[in-house]
Amino acid sequence: MSSKHKRKGKSKFIMIEAYVKRSAAWRALTPIERNAYIEVKWRYDGLNNGRIGLGCRELGDELGMGRDTAKRALNRLADVGFIEKTKPSAFNVKNRAVTEWRLTEYKCDVTGELPNKTFMRWQPEKKQQAHPTDTQAHPCDTIKAKPAENGRYRRTHATVEPNSAVSQAHPCDTYRYTIGGNVDAA
After folding, report:
1. 83 has which bridge partners?
2. DSSP one-letter string for 38-77
3. What is the mean pLDDT of the chain?
4. Most Cβ neighbours (<10 Å): which of 56, 63, 132, 149?
């Protein structure tokens, strides 16, 4: 690489490509999982894809979260297809090796495998629709109506009709007693 293409200064940045950000897999990630992806990508220097060492304890310390949360975030990134595990961790007395990862959007520097961009083929699971019985009326509303005293069934889901056989108060009587009109002037 010639010197005219080298970056001036030593500041490092992370570039997230537009196709990555617009993917369905990226939209499905939680903020914690996105931060975990950024942390994995931060450790990629252009020559170490397939040897990016990051364990769940170290990720948890770096992002200020628990080890189990970090482990779930890394597993979710692997499930969706942003990263792949190239070497599992080993924690014993003689060998303390951290898990090594590969970003699927770049060529693997260990095996030479081309980028497979598995996350671009990932599709979210279809949201399950409500069960048909969940959208129906409550079971007590669907029980058959019991016959009334006159032998006819009462309607439970119909408009209430006025019963004209029952005597009702005259509107002027209601006015007099409720508002204080003259009772004797009838």
Report:
1. 103
2. HHHHHT--SS-TT-EE--HHHHHHHHT--HHHHHHHHHHH
3. 79
4. 56
